[in-house]
UniProtKB/TrEMBL annotation:
Compartment list: Cell outer membrane
The organism of origin for this protein: Pseudotamlana haliotis
Cross-referenced InterPro entries: TolC-like (IPR051906)
Database matches in SUPFAM superfamilies: Outer membrane efflux proteins (OEP) (SSF56954)
Gene Ontology cellular component terms for the protein in this record: cell outer membrane; efflux pump complex
Keywords in alphabetical order: Cell outer membrane, Membrane, Signal, Transmembrane, Transmembrane beta strand
GO molecular function, one term: efflux transmembrane transporter activity
Main subcellular location: membrane
Domain of life: Bacteria
Protein name: TolC family protein
Signal sequence segment: 1-20
Length: 463
């Protein structure tokens, strides 16, 4: 605790109080929000989350009653051939059923059913299945925070690289202005015979070196603006109007630790999900009970049966007709049960498979916790080291500036050579570059520190 406050007071040169410090401007926060909205990875993850949410709802909906209606109309026609032992009538002597007899029949059939079904007891499959699905959704939700943190870090890193190059360009331009003044004095001295072309050429070489560095910086800046445009969806021209700041990042003391990281929370949810899945598989032996009700309508109409016989009186063909044969209303109510008594060891296999998956998740959690503990310690040490290095680097930068000012005066007085003067210029540039590079590293170390506790979210960036 004391060390954290000590580090804060070491940075009093950059800020007066913690509340006055803003690690990011409002414009930068806006760009971060735009990048989160644009991210295709986040959109894909949210779609997956939506699909899992629909799956969870579909599991719970198994208890919602269903209502089905089906109807059937058909026309049928067939020929029936019979061969029955002959029977002779005792009075008339007529033989009945002699040989093969053919009957022709046809008719219309209409059938309709309205059926309601309701699952009363799923053998606890729905209850545990829904809980397992809910834990899967929670795990994916936690991983979204991890994905968001990576995007935030990438965007801020791009901010810092842009500002680092702009600061480097400013240092080079300042150095070029100083060298240009020296060049003017050298050219005047050469014309008066007080200097040699060697000094002019050394200055020219320094100018060309600065020009080459500026060309490289401009190229890299263009690429970084393109990347930032890709991340945020804002055009490059508009992005160049934004002002970014490169200053040490202040981190508020957090009560959270590495066990609060979204990866750990996701693993905890996954393990709970396997617990419910295991309970679901262990209860597969329970019966499933369903209630149902059916209302049906059936009608056989306009049916005919043509026989090979004739009437005794009038010798007319004997044909039968049916206008309607109807069943309505027909009710059927009941409760059904399905009980899988022996599944061929399928249930045992599922239980064993789920137990192994749970053990794998538990081992993965133990491994992750050990690595995250080490990572959390490493990020804390890195952040503290970068803070202390910044203090020394700031002093080194001031010393290099004093040395440069002294070299300018001494060269003007003829006390040192042009080589020594340019070396002082180069040394100052290198020290300044390293100083701004170290600020960039310190800011990245701060972001890693926030990631190590799962705190790298938009609302925590200026805390």
């Amino acid at each position: 605790m004391k060390k954290a406050f000590f580090l804060f007071f070491l940075f009093c040169g950059f800020t007066i109080t913690v509340q006055a410090q803003q690690n990011l401007t409002d414009a930068q926060l806006e760009l971060i929000e735009l990048s989160l909205d644009k991210s295709y990875e986040l959109k894909a993850a949210n779609y997956e989350l939506s699909l899992d949410s629909l799956e969870y709802k579909s599991i719970r909906q198994n208890f919602i009653p269903t209502l089905e209606f089906d109807a059937l109309y058909g026309y049928g026609s067939t020929q029936i051939i019979t061969n029955i032992p002959t029977v002779q009538l005792p009075i008339t002597g007529i033989n009945l059923f002699e040989g093969d007899k053919k009957f022709n029949t046809n008719g219309n059939v209409l059938n309709a059913n309205l059926t309601a079904k309701a699952l009363l007891f799923s053998g606890l499959q729905v209850n545990y299945g829904a809980k397992a699905s809910n834990q899967k959704i929670r795990a994916m939700h936690y991983l979204l925070f991890k994905e968001r943190a990576e995007i935030i870090k990438d965007v801020i890193s791009t901010f810092d690289k842009i500002e680092l190059l702009k600061q480097s360009k400013h240092v080079l331009e300042s150095g070029l202005r100083r060298i240009t003044k020296e060049k003017e004095r050298v050219l005047k001295a050469i014309s008066n015979g007080l200097a040699t072309p060697y000094e002019r050429d050394k200055i020219r070489a320094a100018e060309l070196n600065i020009a080459a560095k500026k060309t490289e910086i401009n190229g890299n800046l263009g690429l970084l603006y393109l990347k930032l445009s890709m991340l945020t969806g804002v055009d490059v021209f508009s992005l160049k109007a934004y002002m970014f700041e490169l200053k040490p990042w202040l981190v508020e003391i957090s009560r959270e630790s590495f066990i609060d990281r979204p990866e750990v929370k996701a693993l905890n949810a996954s393990i709970k999900g396997y617990d419910y899945k295991l309970k679901m598989n262990k209860h597969l032996f329970l019966p499933k009970i369903q209630a149902f009700a059916n209302l049906s309508y059936a009608n056989l109409f306009n049916a005919e049966l043509n026989t090979p016989y004739n009437s005794l009186i009038g010798n007319e063909p004997i044909n039968l007709e049916l206008n309607k044969f109807q069943f309505f209303p027909t009710y059927f109510l009941g409760v059904g049960m399905k009980w899988e008594i022996f599944s061929g060891l399928k249930h045992t296999t599922e239980i064993g498979k789920t137990s192994i998956e749970k053990s794998m998740a538990e081992d993965k959690k133990a491994d992750v916790l050990e690595k995250l503990k080490l990572f959390a310690k490493k990020t804390q040490v890195d952040f503290e080291v970068k803070n202390e290095q910044l203090l020394y680097k700031e002093q080194e930068k001031q010393v290099a500036l004093n040395t440069l000012n002294s070299a300018v005066k001494q060269y003007k007085a003829g006390l040192i050579s042009i080589t020594e003067r340019l070396e002082a210029e180069t040394d100052y540039q290198d020290v300044t570059f390293n100083y701004y590079e170290l600020i960039t590293q310190q800011r990245m170390a701060a972001l890693e520190l926030l990631i190590s506790t799962g705190s790298l979210q938009v609302q925590n960036l200026n805390q």
